[in-house]
Design goal:
about 180 residues; mainly alpha; 5 helices; single chain; about 70% helix
């Protein structure tokens, strides 16, 4: 019988895969429940879904004015630019711009998170530049611990708030 496959941090991959799968299933169920609860409590203005598609259709093709060629042109141009970024990233190893950066550029979360993203990038750059790969690998658990600690605190306070029905004052990505 073969020994279980273990990676460089001494974690069994099979156990990690099962844990990740369970977290995905639990997260999906909790998300569905939360969306339904918010939808019924607030008459469903926050759920998006097909409503967003109807809004997009009404912007691009209106019965009164016809097709909005300006918005359609920007969508086509953005799609072509995104395809170009994806192709450049695939063909040239040295290409510095990731297509996800372009996609996230206009999202609400990127406006809230850009200082943290920039700080993380700068710390990684300094570590790799002056400490090399060894220092980067040694520092990874510290930064992963910071992210995990923040998410655990957010999760605990979210559960406390849901259980007590009282706002805990802990806001994630709210201004």
């Amino acid at each position: 019988m073969d020994a279980p496959e273990v990676d460089e941090v001494k974690v069994r991959r099979r156990g990690l895969l099962i844990g990740m799968g369970a977290a995905m299933v639990i997260g999906t169920l909790v998300s569905y429940y939360s969306v339904l609860k918010v939808s019924y409590a607030h008459s469903a203005p926050y759920t998006g879904g097909a409503g967003d598609m109807r809004w997009l259709t009404s912007v691009l093709v209106s019965t009164e004015t016809g097709t909005d060629w300006t918005n359609t042109g920007f969508m086509v141009g953005g799609s072509i630019f995104m395809g170009l970024l994806m192709w450049l990233r695939r063909v040239f190893v040295w290409w510095p711009l990731h297509p996800i950066g372009y996609t996230m550029l206009s999202s609400w979360a990127s406006f809230k998170l850009w200082p943290s993203i920039f700080l993380g990038w700068m710390m990684k750059y300094i570590l790799v530049r002056y400490g090399g790969l060894r220092m980067y690998r040694a520092a990874r658990p510290i930064f992963l611990g910071l992210v995990l600690g923040e998410m655990i605190c957010a999760g605990i306070w979210a559960i406390v708030g849901m259980a007590t029905g009282v706002s805990t004052g802990y806001r994630i990505l709210l201004s």
